[in-house]
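Hi there,

I know you've been waiting on this one. I reran it after we fixed the sequence typo, so this is the corrected version. Both the input and the resulting structure follow.
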Amino acid sequence: MALLATQQIGFAGTATTLASAAGGGDTVTPDDRTFLWVKNGSGSPITVTVVVPGAYYGQNLGDVAVSVPATTGERMIGPLDRRLQNANGFVDITYSGVTSLTVAAVRI
C-alpha cells in the first residue's frame, strides 16, 4: 500500500494533484478534515472501500464501500478521521480495480 500525501486546500486556491491508485490499495493519514478524492476514467464502475478496523460488542465493524461511476465519475469520501486508523496509524483504502483510477488525499 502506498501512503498518499495529504494536500492542504487553501483559501487562495490549490492545484490538487491526483495520482494513479495503487493496485494493492493506498493509505491515508487520518484527520477529521481529510477526504479521499477519487476520479474514475475507466469504462466500468469501481468500488472504493474504506477499511473500518475494530469491533463493537464482539461484532466486526463493516467496511465502507463507495461505487464510483464509469468514465467521468468522481467521489469525495470522508472525513477519514482517527476512528478509522489501523494499528499503524493510517486509514486503509482498497479498490476493485485501478485502471484509469486516480486519487488524492485532500484536507479542507
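Quick highlight: The radius of gyration is 14 Å.

Best,
R. S.
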